[in-house]
Amino acid sequence: TKFERTFIAIKPDGVNRGLVGEIICRFERKGFKLVGIKILHPTKAQAEEHYADLSTKPFFAGLCNYFSSGAVVAMVWEGKGVVKTGRTLIGATNPAESTPGTIRGDLCIEVGRNIIHGSDSTDSAKAEITLWFKDSEVAEYQGNQTWVYE
Ligand code: DAT
Ligand code: MG
Question: pTM of the entire structure?
Answer without folding.
Answer: 0.98
